[in-house]
Design a protein that fits this description.
CATH architecture of the largest domain: 3-Layer(aba) Sandwich
Oligomer: single chain
Radius of gyration: 23 Å
Largest sheet: 8 strands, mixed
Number of helices: 14
Mean pLDDT: 81
Strand content: 15-25%
Number of strands: 22
Low-confidence stretches: 390-443, 459-466
CATH topology of the largest domain: Rossmann fold
Distance between the termini: 26 Å
């Protein structure tokens, strides 16, 4: 068996002990900790102990499912393609409704370990002999609960934004807290060198001007205050070239600094839509940076991600493809330009840049760039509060002069809503960065953004001795 980290050995032992008296085990381990290696190692021990015949794995995307299959095949030393002679197969939750009945029959006829990755995507509970929840959760309860010999659920963020119960999870009474059989938090992962220190850069602007016939001219001192007054929405800022250019400029400088120490370090940009991603790519090109865009519309997207994984390319721009679970350890800088502002999604995006590579310097950390919108700011400070070591918050003013040149445009007055079902981003169309897309059919407000940017840098775990 490959050398396991301390937490992986602990969790493996806990899982095997737990299986002596219960068939289900829930592991909550921080994103980037190595949950797939741990659960594949559990499967290996169960095979060697002659306690299982097969393993079935389910996860929320094809990219994750393929990565899971690769890891299981390596650790088990057997094929893991779901065919005759294989140790098992890896599938997506979405595919459960179309899987042949013969596969589900395997759960009844053989001893099967079922692995449910990122289980928070599956909501479900039983009440008065009825199964309620989303389609994935109902399938888990109907087809897997009571049929699998053993099941292990994994999550880096074990809660749902709609506050519905997670399938197969146990909750304490009467407070309703989720019971995890094993937990491995970010603080311990950083202390043990498993994860990088997160460094979150909150970008804001000191002088934002809105003008219209109705408003006259209004000046605000932050993104938060501008949005709070209801005349403009958070997605409007994401479409602004000056905001995009400033964020990309800061992130590319940081990536260049990191690559002096880690030559293959890469950057991720989480975009709002396919059109937005393509527009961001053009703005990166202006900075002399090449990038690759991946989305559900990208032909051979999974091959593109795999190629990026092993290359030395600097930037990959994603729409709903790399925000969760995808194993790209060389990602070390990320720009959060998504419209989704749930804490679950925020932590999953942060997790993409926290997975350590062997031998990398511990002081560099993983850098996340976000706009200082109210929810995102609260999420960042909440992570700060969870980490017990010294936190350094530095103030970095940018371009103190008053300058609105080149910052004039139109902004739609669309309602500022989250499209966060299952925390998977969907492309709703539109052309970003063009006046046509930025004007409301009924009325418009002129938005001017000054050059007075400033950053709060939450440099978490500074001074920590590992």
């Amino acid at each position: 068996m490959r050398q396991l980290r301390n937490w992986q050995r602990e969790c493996l032992t806990h899982a095997l002990s737990s299986f002596e008296h219960q068939p289900h085990f829930l592991c909550h381990a921080t994103p980037g900790a190595g949950k797939t290696v741990m659960v594949a190692s559990v499967a290996k021990v169960l095979f060697e102990s002659d306690k299982i015949d097969f393993v079935l794995c389910f996860s929320p995307s094809r990219t994750i499912a393929q990565s899971v299959a690769t890891t299981f095949s390596q650790i088990l030393g057997r094929s893991f393609n779901g065919r005759i002679g294989a140790a098992g197969g890896s599938y997506t939750y979405q595919s459960m409704g179309t899987l042949p009945k013969e596969l589900w029959q395997v759960l009844s006829d053989h001893r099967v370990l079922v692995v449910l990755d990122e289980i928070h995507h599956c909501s479900g509970s039983e009440s008065d002999d009825l199964i309620i929840g989303n389609s994935w959760g109902r399938t888990v309860l109907d087809r897997i609960q009571g049929h699998a010999s053993y099941s292990i659920a994994l999550s880096g963020t074990p809660w749902r934004t709609d506050n519905t119960p997670i399938a197969l999870a146990r909750y304490t009474q009467p407070d309703g807290d989720l019971h995890c059989d094993y937990e491995y938090g970010l603080g311990r992962a950083i202390a043990e060198g498993v994860c990088r220190k997160p460094k979150i850069v909150l970008t804001d602007n000191r002088e934002i001007q809105l003008s219209s016939c109705e408003l006259g001219v209004q000046t605000y001192s932050s993104i938060r205050d501008t949005i709070k007054h209801g005349h403009i929405s958070y997605p409007d800022f994401l479409g602004r070239d000056e905001v995009i250019d400033h964020t990309l400029s800061e992130a590319t400088k940081k990536l260049s600094e990191i690559r002096l120490h880690i030559p293959n370090a890469g950057g991720l940009i989480v975009a709002a839509t396919v059109a937005h991603a393509e527009h961001v790519a053009t703005r990166l090109a202006v900075l002399g940076e090449r990038s690759v865009v991946v989305s559900c519309r990208t032909p051979d997207a999974h091959q593109t991600i795999e190629k990026f994984r092993t290359s030395g390319d600097r930037w990959i721009i994603s729409v709903g493809m790399i925000s969760e679970g995808t194993d790209l350890p060389r990602l070390q800088v990320c720009c959060h330009l998504s419209r989704i502002r749930t804490e679950l999604h925020f932590r999953q995006v942060l997790g993409r840049i926290l997975r350590c590579q062997a031998g990398e310097p511990s002081h560099i950390g993983g850098w996340l760039y976000v706009l200082a919108e109210q929810n995102l700011t609260e999420f960042a400070h909440r992570i700060d509060q969870e980490l017990p070591e010294q936190t350094v918050v530095s103030f970095s003013p940018k371009r103190p002069e008053h300058n609105f040149d080149g910052a004039i445009g139109r902004a739609a007055l669309a309602s500022d809503t989250d499209t966060s079902a299952h925390d998977i981003e969907l492309d709703v169309g539109g052309e970003w960065g063009t006046e046509k897309a930025m004007v409301s059919p009924s009325e418009s407000t002129e938005l001017r953004i000054s050059n007075q940017y400033w950053n709060d840098i939450l440099s978490l775990f500074e001074g920590l001795v590992v």
